Every structure is written in C-alpha cells, then in structure tokens.
Amino acid sequence: MVEKRKSSNQTNNVSSTSFKKKKEEIEDTILSMGDDDDYLDDGEDNGSEDESGSENFEDYVDDGDEELDDSEAVVGTPLSQKMADIEDEDEERENVNLRVKKGVDSLEKTAAPTTEEMQEYNETAQLFNSNLFRLQVIEFFKEIKINYTKTTSLESALFQLKSIFDSIQPHQVKSNQCSNQVKIFGDQTITVTKPSSVDLVGSYMLKSTIKSNPNVDVSVEIPSSIVGEEDIYEYKYFTKRNIYLWALAKEVAKNERFSDIEFQNWNGDSNKQMFIIRPKADPKTGAITRFQIRVFISLDKNFVPLSKLSPISFNLSKTSVEDQKKKKNLQQSTTQDTLFTLNDQDLLQDQIDPLDLKFGNPNNSKNLLKFNQIKRSSYYNNSILEDMMYFEHMELLHDRIKNAPVLIDAIQLIKSWLIVKKVSTINSFQLSMLVAYLYDQGKVNKNMSSYQIFRMVLVSIVEKFVSVNRDAKPCGPMFFKASGSQAPVFGLHYSSFRRLYPMALIDASGYLNITSRVTSWALEELAQEARKSLVLLDSGDGFDEIFLQQGSPSLRYDYLLSIPLKGCQLEMPSKDYYSQELYCSHYIYRLLCATLTNRIRSITVVQDQLEGWAVDQPRPDAFANRTIHCGIELDINQWQRLIDKGPSGDHVDSDAFQAKWGKLSQLRRFKDGTIVHAVVWNPPGGRRHMIIEMIAKYILSTRLSIQSDSVSANISMFDRILQAPTMTFDAQALIVAKETIITAVDQLDLPLKINGYYPIGPALRYTSVEVVNDPQYINNQPIEILLQFENNPNWSSDIKTIELLKTAFMLKIARELEQYQPRLSTQQYVDVQYQGFLFRLIPYYPRELDFLGSEHQDVRQAILLHQNGLQHHSFIQTLANQQPAFSTATRLAQRWCYSNLFSDDISIETIELLMASIFKSTSTPPPTTPILGFIKFLRLISTYEWSERPLIVDYQQDISLSDTQSIQEIFDNQKKANNLPLFFIATHKDRASIWFKSLNSRDTHVRDRLIKCAKQSFASLNQLNLTDQLDMNAIFNTPQLDFDLKIMLNANFITNFNGSINNLLIEKKENEKENEKTKEQENSQTTVNGNEKTAVVKTLLSKYSNFNSKSKSTNAATTKKEIIVGHNLIKLFVDRLRSDPSLSCHCQFYYDKIGGDAIHVVFNPKSWTPLAFRPLRSVMALPIDATNSSNLVIPNLYEIIAHITDLGGKLINQVKLNPSSTILKSFDFK
C-alpha cells in the first residue's frame, strides 16, 4: 500500500486544498503520537547545519543513531514520558559518583524492582526463554528503525513530484502511444489532466517502514473526468488507468532528478502497472535519499456502488439485465472457480489433468466448467476495488495503531521476518492487515509486547493454515467489521469467498479480499515457515535464523526444477481477467501436481520477481526471458519408484491415460495378476533421482512445447561426483562379504570364544568415500571390525601378557584364513581380503581398560575410541536406515572436506555428527535428497556460532532443558580453559564432546579456513538460477593462492588416483590430455624446471651441498604393486612431515587423501619473523643479508625444500613455490 506523510513545516501543501478534512485529522493524530520530535523533519535545524558548513545532507536509511523505543514496556505509558524517564536514568548514572554517600540501612540498599522491571523479568523467563534473545530483539530494533528526522532530501523530492503533477496541462493521449509500455485492452483516447489529489499512504505515514524496505508510496487519484461508472465493464477502466499512469510517468521523467524511473507490475499483476522513482540528489542542497517512491493510480471511493463489485457480479462484459438473469447459473458456477483455490491440494492425491478438472455441480453435467473455461470476474472486481481503498486501509491501520502504539514494533518485526523468508505472493501490507484483524478479534492487545504480538501472529497462521499432520489446510474467510453506508450484511458472501480463495481477509467494505493474490502454495509455505520459527522461538535460540538469515529455495526444497518459458505454447483464455504470468504459473503447478501424483508432498512455484522496465522501453514478454522455478518436497517412499500405474484397459479413463502418456503407456501384467496401463521409467545408469526430471521434461514438452533439454534440476548437478566409484559401491555385496568373513572366523577352533563381531568402519554404515570395490586391493581402505573376546579366567591382568595373547590370536586367525590372503601388519590387527573388499579384524578385550596404568595412555585412547565408535556406529547406522539420503549426503560432505584439503583435520565421525544434526533437527523436516543435505551442511558450518555455543544432536529426542543447560556449562568451562574441540558437538552419551576430539585438528586457524571455504561453496550453490552451468571447481577445489608451497606427487604412489576431484570434474578430452602428461612423467626421471620461478628445486640444489640428490636420481617409473595394501603412502608421508620437529615449527601440511596429487604447504608467519642468531637456531637458518651484519636469521627455505625432498624420495615429482606468497615476496626468494 502507498503511504502518506507530512513534514513539520510544509507537508500540508503536498495534497494542497484537495485533501479531505478527514485525512487532515488522521495526519494530525499521527504526528501527535508518542514523542512528537521523533516524527518531525529537521527542517528548522537545516539552517544551523548550513551555517556550520555541512554540505552533505543524506537520508541515511540505515542510520543507527536513532534511539529505540522500548517496545517491551507497558504500552499505557506515553512515549514522551518514557523518553524523559530514560534521560533521567542516564543522568543519574552519570552523576552517581558525584553524590555524597550517606549511611544507608541494609534494608534500603536495594530498591524493590519496579512493575516494568518485573514485566521484563517475566518476559525473559516465560517468553524469550533467554536473556540473550531479548537483548538481540532490542538491538535489532535499533538496526531496522528509520530516523524520521533525517529525511530532508525525501521531503524535497515529494514536494517537487507534487508540483510536477499539479503543473500537468490538459492533453490527449491515445492508447497506441503507450501500448508497448503498459497493458492496453482496447483502443481508447483520454484527455490527461492533473490528478484530483496526490496522497502519501501506507507504512511510511504509519511509521512502520523498516530500513531493509525503504519505500514511500504515493497515491495519485485519477480525475473523474477520465473514468466513470460505465468503465467498470470490458476492461475500459484498466486501459484508461494504465494510459494515465504512462502519461504521468512521461511527465515525471522529464525532470532530471527523477530520470531514474521505471515501470513495474503492481503486486505481480501484469494487467496493472505502477512506476518507481529513485530520486537523485537535491539540486539545491546536494542531499540524497535511499528511499524509492512508488506511484499508484487510485480511484475515489464513490466511483461506483460497491455492490456492483461483489464477488458474484459479472463485469467482464456489459450486458442487459435480461442477459444477466440468463447467466445466473454461470455466475453461480463462477464462484466455483479454483484457479487460486483449495482444490489445488486435491491434486496431490488425485490424478487429475488440469485441463479436465471441472467445477460446478457434479450432478449437473451442463453446469460443469473446465479449468480454462471459467470466467474470473471476481478477480476483475477485486482489482478495481484495490484502487478504491488505499486511504481506507491506512485509516483502519492508523486507528488500531493509535489505540495500541506497540503494533508499530510488532509490524516491523513481521516485515523483517517476511523479507528474509521470501514467501511469494505475500507482502507486508497483507500481514499488517492480519495484525489489525487479530487486534479486532482480541487475539492481541495493547498490553502485549511486540514480541508477544509477533509470536501470536505466527501461532494464528499455524493454527489456521496447518493441519495436525503439518500439511496445509483450508481456512474460512476472515471479515473485518463492516462499516460505511454501502457495507453489506456481515458475511454475506462468505461461501463465495471461501470457494474462490485459499486465503480471504475481507476489509471493512465487505467486498475486497486483501489477500486475493495469495496462492495456495504460498499460503502453505507461509504456514510452514511460521511453524519453524515458533519452534526456534520456543527454544530461546535461533534469532539469526528467524530474522537475519535469508531464505533460499535451495535450502527449503528437496528438488528444484527450472523451466525456461522461451518457446512456450500456452494458449491464454480470451476476454478474461488473467495475469499472463500468474496464469502460466498456475497451469504448470497443476500440470506437475497431476503428473507427479504421490511422488511429491507439495510443489511451490517460486515466483521470480519480474524486473522493471524503463518508461521508453517495451513491456517484457511474459515468456521470452522468463524462467519458472518449482520447489518440490518429495515423498521419501515414492519419489524414486520406476512405474506409474494407470487404469485397466476397459476402464472409462483408459483413453485419457493413453492420451496423456502417448507411446510411453503400455498394458502390463503385474505380479498381483492385474493388467493395467503403466509407464515404466528407465533412468540412465540406474540414476533414479532423475525420474522426476524425466517426467517433467516429457509432460512440459508435450503439453507446452517447451524444449526438454532446457528443463533442468539441481539434483543432477553433482552426478559426476555422486556416480564416481569412490561415492558409490555395491552395499549388498559389501554386506555379503562381511558376513562371509565373520562366518569364516566364527568357525575357527580358537582357544577363546568370540562373543561378538562389531563393525565400526564407516563403510558399513554407508558413509565412507575411501572404500571401493577393487579386485587388486590397492585403492581400497580397510573396513574395521572389532572381535570381542569372551571374559575368561585365563585372561591375565598383566598388560604385556594381554597384548601377547591378542597377538597369538591374530596369528592363529591369519594362519587359518589363508584363502583370504591375510596380512598381520602388527599385533593390533590382521587384514583379510574378499570379493574386492579389505577387512581389518581388530582384537578387543573390554576388561583391558581396568588394568591399564598411566604409562599406557596410547593403548587406553585406542580402546576408548573403539568403545565410543561402537555406540556411534549404532546411532549413525540407524539414522542411515531411516533416512535414505543421509549416507549419500554424508559422503558428499566428506568428499568436499577432503577435496578442500581437510583430510586429517576433520574426522569422518565429526562429519557424520554434523550431518546427523541436520537430519535430526526439530525445526525443519529431514532432507529427502542428498543435495539438500549437503547444502544445509555447508550452511551449518558457515553460519553456526561455534565459539559461542555447542551443537546438540538429539538422536532419541530425550535431551531435556536441564541437559541442555548442563552441556552449555561444560562448553563454557572448556572455553575458559581454551580446550574446545574443532566443533563442539554434544550427544546424550557424549555431553562433553570428547569421544572423537583427538581425531580432529585443534588449530583454530583450521576451523576458520573450513568456515571460509564453506561460505564460498555455499554462496556458489545458494542461487536460484539453475540454467547456468555451476562451476564445481569453485566448490570442490581450494584456491591455490592460500598456499606458499606445493609438493607435486608421483601418481604411481597415490592411492585411488583416478578418484581425485580433478579427474571427476574435468571433461573427457581434458582428462585424456592429463593422462598423457602423467604417463610421460611416469616413464621418465623426475623433472624440475629451473627456469620457472615456481619450480625451484634444481635451481637451489647447487647452492647447498647438504641436499641429497640421490633420491631424485631414482627412476620414478614404479609399478603400483609396490604400494602396501591397506596403507595410504601419501598419508604416511604427510604424517612423517608433520612429526618432524624441524618442519612442524615452520610449516603446515594439507592434502586430499582421495587421489590428491599434491601436498600444499602453508608457512607459519610467526616463525618467519627475523630473530637474533643463536646456536639453537642454526638448523635450517638463513641470514637475512649477505654480510649478516644485523645478526638476524630466518628459516632457510632452500634447506626446508631439500629436507622435504629427502624425506619424500621418489614420492615427489616436483616442488613449486607460489609467486603470490606474501612471505616469499617479503624475503625475495627466487
């Protein structure tokens, strides 16, 4: 809605003498509300500012200097009195130390809390659930409120705009002059004159505008000489309205200050336009504003009797009374129109074709109307009423705010919430009117705080529009109390509004539905977002998720489908009130619902905001450059099924089913004996996740002639990675192999019985990317299984004896399992091979912990890891069985961590816990697709406050509030002791987050870098436009500029080299070229280019004689048979580098353990600070100058490289320096 405001000195001139007396009374009341000074312009202060030499006046919308009104205080206290009390309190605080202290009785030292303080305490405990949340809300108000005393440039722009409108001279405009810029329905010629009135309306006048949406709305009343009552028929009013708007825009655009002007559709309705002005600086003062001015066309309320615009009046064509009577039945059937209706939900259960869906009396076939035959006169009438009620709606809101000023703060909270949630077809004006309705109904009152009102609005939305099973449910119309002489009997058209709209909020006129454009899918989305926010509010946490974190379709839906409309052949009904864009959205929505049937739980058409167009540019085509995005929530059990069954061959719907699916439909006999028409889907490569995309492509191409190749889905973005051997393996084959090994061991004649076989390897819970089915067992990592021996008196209490007994058992097992090619690497385990999988059998005696002393810390830690791993494996495996997407999402997250070089910094157990927190969240449903799980994983890492609060994973929903408080205390104690893990993730069994603490890095820089990478990857994925090719390298490849040194490795010794991220992402041709280069390197001696700055090894060798060149002369052409089965040589090499004291103090090492061909080195900046020479610093030290006159040394880069190459030997192909390294540049290493 548009809004109206007066300045302290001149605003009375904005509407000139045309303003009505009632309007002046409202404005005067608004200006007198609360603290008067806060509503006034700084007009009189301008002179003093000019005298002081300030030339840069600005309307800083995001000015943070404005004092925040205490929205949580008792509403009955006048605002001016509140401000005075605050000033007195501030003065008392400032002078407290200047007073002479007197003896005070102990009972008088602490004053009793005031009523307001008691209210704050109660709200903190009962409403906010945490003092932090309350403080966040208070600070949030300071960030969103506008300083209305700093609007100099805006005020001058409004006066100048008013003068332009008043100076318009009468002139004729024909419809053909503007038919390209605005919507024209027929030939018309009007005489343009100055407006009857120019008003400011809406939230700016009500002082509820927020900084994130700085709009000022101007209502321009079209003169009665241009339009009359007869223009309500046959679109005449809409044509004249749009012509008049175009004429006004052309006049305004002539002014240089208003040259930044464009047309936009009014609330997404392409039948009505408005224009937007972004004023430039004031030519006199240079003041600028960040507000934008929106100009609407309005009508006088008495333009036409309101009864003629009732929801059952037919005004699409002018007919005689006799014709109207003849069409009485048609009018009644019109009220059955469900274009926007609740019946959309029925499509989720019934296989109904959108063109065959009929409405009316099912017992009377003559009264049934097809979807594209229904005349929507009710929407036509509602659109005219919208232009008549601007001021009446502002008056209604003003009256409620006058009685309860706290509503302003509540509305601002709701606006801020709606902006970040981005619910299509729902705007802040509609929710503001909903607040007013709840106030009239007594659901909210002036004694409530803004937080209470905000929460009550969310509760009302959930109660009205969400059923017990969390699906959307219909809601009856909501009526404001009717007022005015033309108002109908209260609830007269109740049944009509109920049938016509999914949401009906009827204003005081009794005829206008304020929420007429709200779609069924938007209403469902609004209700679900409200429910999620209530869960977060009740938890006392989640302020950022409620008010700050921008909503995104990629985070909200399991499946995103992008449908470019270029070439779309959708036939629009003639002579009917359709917004072409919205009609197309509804058609596609219904088409997909009827086609996908029970594969989905819901579909949302994510409305793309159509951009505006310049006043001299043609109106954009509805189809040419538009893409519709559909967000789909999938049914976890049905979405990947291969068969769509239809009716039997002799059924009445058989022909319709065949016509729908064409050649895809075939008669098939099923195991239950039925013979029916069916469609069988055969996705390429068995990728069932593509079935929905295949169905959508087929039906859109056959019905709308949309090219199937242009339709895309986000779930296919990661196919190159998800379908790689490291991401997929035959789980059934793995289970069979595991059971075979267990059976073989169980049948052995061992002195002691094995009580249990407990898998603890992530591959057996389907989350590992390190396990592949490799017949050569070279690229496969071992799958760990614990063999728990029975308690027996024969066991000794001596640790050495226990270790010897365990070794003897392992030798016995190895000898007995010769057919499985066992390898007894140490006394700790034995590796056996079967069917391409490598299993590691680990002896486990539970009572061993009781006999360990302080000198056996390593053994204790290993046993505890096994015990904790058992419980963790049970939790994760159960979750993986319950949620099919969990395992693949975890593997994708693990692959992302490894490819970004965090292989040894974050354990697979920690990644599983992070993903488990997403799938066990109570505020959002678990993801159905791996893509959604992965995107939420990145968002969790990048946005969670890891240094401030623990992450709690409640597996069984049994962690109470006291448990949460206890976990928080543990977290705080660890933080004080500087002993926090990489990520503090607490579970019911591991409240201190210590189970896997030793497996993760403790370096905060690693966590910071992990968060940085997650933010970059999330930003790349968090985009709606899926038609563009996603750059996977930006997600899975770390920028090389972050590293100082790069150690290139010999591919012969790299485990699972074919699974490297580069090999998965590059195109086939590029892959072939890369393989040729690799072969050349394998068949020749290691090459180092001494001429390049970045390949310095051989260039440096001649300078230092302590470099062992023997290792580099060895031929690198080594077969992979030399790799030890079950060991990653690169990992062993990195562990050796990290454990070397001469390197660990200077360098940090990062690598990708899945096929990574390089080790990246980061220098420690502190170790490169020049220090005075000491004998202890003589190792790997280099003088900073040739004469060493300064006696300062730094680490010797050349010796460091030589030492690394010595340790690596034939594992290393080449060493490169990063030319952009800050450290290397500062010391001029070449």
UniProtKB/TrEMBL annotation:
Bias-annotated ranges (Low complexity): 8-18
An annotated GO BP: tRNA export from nucleus
Keyword Nucleus in record: yes
The protein's name: U3 snoRNP protein
The keyword RNA-binding appears for this protein: yes
A single GO cellular-component term on record: UTP-C complex
Location(s), subcellular: Nucleus, Nucleolus
Family of the protein in this entry: Belongs to the NRAP family.
Main location: nucleus
One matching Pfam family: Nrap_D5
Assigned keywords, A-Z: Nucleus, RNA-binding
Region listing for Disordered, in residue ranges: 1-93
Domain named Nrap protein: residues: 216-333, 408-549, 554-704, 730-861, 884-1037, 1080-1215
Taxonomic lineage from the root: Eukaryota, Amoebozoa, Evosea, Eumycetozoa, Dictyostelia
Biased composition (Acidic residues): 34-72
Molecular function in Gene Ontology: RNA binding
Origin species: Cavenderia fasciculata (Slime mold)
Coiled coil: none
Matches recorded under InterPro entries: NOL6/Upt22, Nrap_D1, Nrap_D2, Nrap_D3, Nrap_D4, Nrap_D5, Nrap_D6
